[in-house]
Amino acid sequence: GEKGPFAELVESLEVPVKIISAGGMGSLYVSGRQYRWREIMDFMVPFSMQDRFELLKIIPKILGSGKPDSPDLSFGRWLGTQTSSEMIRAFFDRMFTFGCSIGIEEIDYIEALKIINNIYRVKAPALIEGGCGYLVEKLLEMLRLSGGTILMETEAVEVLAQREQVIGVNVKNRRSGNEKILASKLVISDIGPGNTFNLLPDLWRADPVVEKRHLGAEEIKSEAIPAAAGEPCIKKDHYWESGTSGLCINMICDAPMLSHAPIMYCLDTKRVAGITQPSGLDPGLAPQGKYLLTAYQRLESEDPDREVALGLNDLRTVFGEKFNNYCRVINTGVFKNAWPVNRSAQGRDYPATLQIEGLYLVGDGCKAPGFVMVEGIAARVKEMLMQIDATLIKGFSFRESLKE
């Protein structure tokens, strides 16, 4: 949204891009009809009077952020104590499926409350004018102007550290195979916690321990797993071993399929959780006279072809003959295993800081609590920048270096 962590981060770094309000929350698709969702509480329009009455009791409890009796309670299980309405359950399930790639039975109750409260606070979503590619171009320009260097066809093969202080990275050129060491007291990794830990083999030769890392009011237990003699001992926990899977279907259409850019949540489809038409807000995202349409769903089986077919059937149900007449699938994206939607499931994200001073984690395995997708990543990056400015390099500001 225009007031979310991503927009705030872009503004604080003075990146020359424009964040455009999507002009409402989106819409709901129910029983063959689309219901526009403009203001935050308009989502109740398609619900029955009984469901509305129950929602008017449920929403204040969510916004009140009450804690459940059981700390391990899922949001779906809690919702089951509040209502028996399948439509209410479907509404929340499709929201979390689209935003987190997990359903209401998989997301923690407290995390779900944080997310809903942030949605209520930030309100309508927003888009970057020109798309993500334009933002990347501007960031690269700022990096080059500040004296930064971009190494192409190069991968990190080891993070170097001494006495729990990072000292640099060993990198290899994929084309030539040549390696070199880049000395640095600051290393930021966005390849995921697990992949980052795999670059630290010599730091984890230790006896098994159980230790506590305090994250504000939260506490995570991490256990070192014993290894065979001479083998590295990598710290394991479910915070970085819980990637989520999903399927994205992208289409180019000859006519607008939605009357808005934000998400249309589909409450009674078999697979598709939501559909968005971002080119309705930024025409430059599609060829002239065309419209970009994107549908998203979870992978509920190990057969991607079957999942794509079910998704396409949903799209034909939603749009009818308009889909066959106007829409052409340009690609499908399957995200799982080594390339998941999120490297950590929502609420199981790893913290940005490790025991190694100067090494920071960012990305979709380290989202901030209560924020999804790019908002969660941006919120964690903001925290990291504040920590760097405050503690790591005295007299140096990452933000100011980018501006200069």
In short:
31% of the residues lie in helices and 23% in strands. By secondary structure, it is α+β, with helices and mostly antiparallel strands. The protein has a seven-stranded mixed β-sheet with strand order 3-2-13-14-15-12-16. Strands 5-6-7 form a three-stranded antiparallel β-sheet, with no helix packed on it. It has a three-stranded antiparallel β-sheet with strand order 9-10-11, with no helix packed on it.
Description:
With 404 residues, the chain is α+β, with helices and mostly antiparallel strands. 31% of the residues lie in helices and 23% in strands. It is built from eleven helices and 17 strands. The protein has helices at residues 5-12, 49-63, 75-80, 86-100, 109-122, 131-145, 193-197, 304-319, 321-326, 373-392, 398-403; strands spanning 19-21, 26-30, 33-37, 126-128, 154-162, 165-173, 179-183, 187-189, 210-215, 218-224, 235-236, 246-253, 264-266, 272-276, 291-297, 327-335, 359-361. The strands form five sheets. The chain has a seven-stranded mixed beta sheet with strand order 3-2-13-14-15-12-16. The longest helix is centred in the C-terminal third of the chain and has 20 residues, at 373-392. It starts with a helix and ends with a helix.
